[in-house]
Task: inverse folding
């Protein structure tokens, strides 16, 4: 198999409080990567072999999950602006075409309407600052 197509990737905001269902961040044109990078801790001392620097891995930072999409529902735009202004850390998940998903927490770090051109669609984009460790769940195996 050549691979799994990325078309069909979906982003959801997990329901909270009096919300009745998870909110699909609809009509995405781009869904970012979830990648971790470990800090480095310098553990070099006077006994380091051959006077060489030595390191160990430190805390892992998963950065931001960036997204962009077409505006089809103005109420979703209002909800995302309100979430940005609330500064609340929320739960999110990305669902992939094969049924796998990646769950993570974090505040909406940026959101806004993109440049509107005379020959284009209304679009928006944003970033979610990943807080903690994402939880990747492989697609269910069919028998």
Result:
């Amino acid at each position: 198999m050549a691979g799994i197509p990325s078309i069909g990737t979906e982003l959801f905001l997990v329901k909270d409080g009096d919300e009745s269902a998870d909110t699909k961040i609809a009509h995405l044109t781009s869904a970012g990567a979830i990648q971790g990078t470990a800090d480095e801790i310098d553990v070099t001392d006077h006994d380091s072999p051959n006077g060489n620097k030595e390191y160990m891995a430190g805390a892992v930072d998963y950065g931001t999950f960036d997204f962009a999409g077409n505006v089809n529902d103005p109420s979703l735009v209002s909800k995302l602006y309100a979430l940005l202004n609330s500064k609340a850390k929320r739960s999110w998940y990305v669902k992939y075409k094969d049924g796998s998903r990646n769950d993570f927490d974090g505040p909406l770090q940026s959101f806004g309407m993109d440049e509107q051109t005379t020959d284009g669609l209304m679009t928006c984009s944003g970033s979610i600052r990943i807080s903690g460790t994402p939880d990747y769940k492989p697609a269910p195996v069919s028998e």
Helices lie at 74-86.
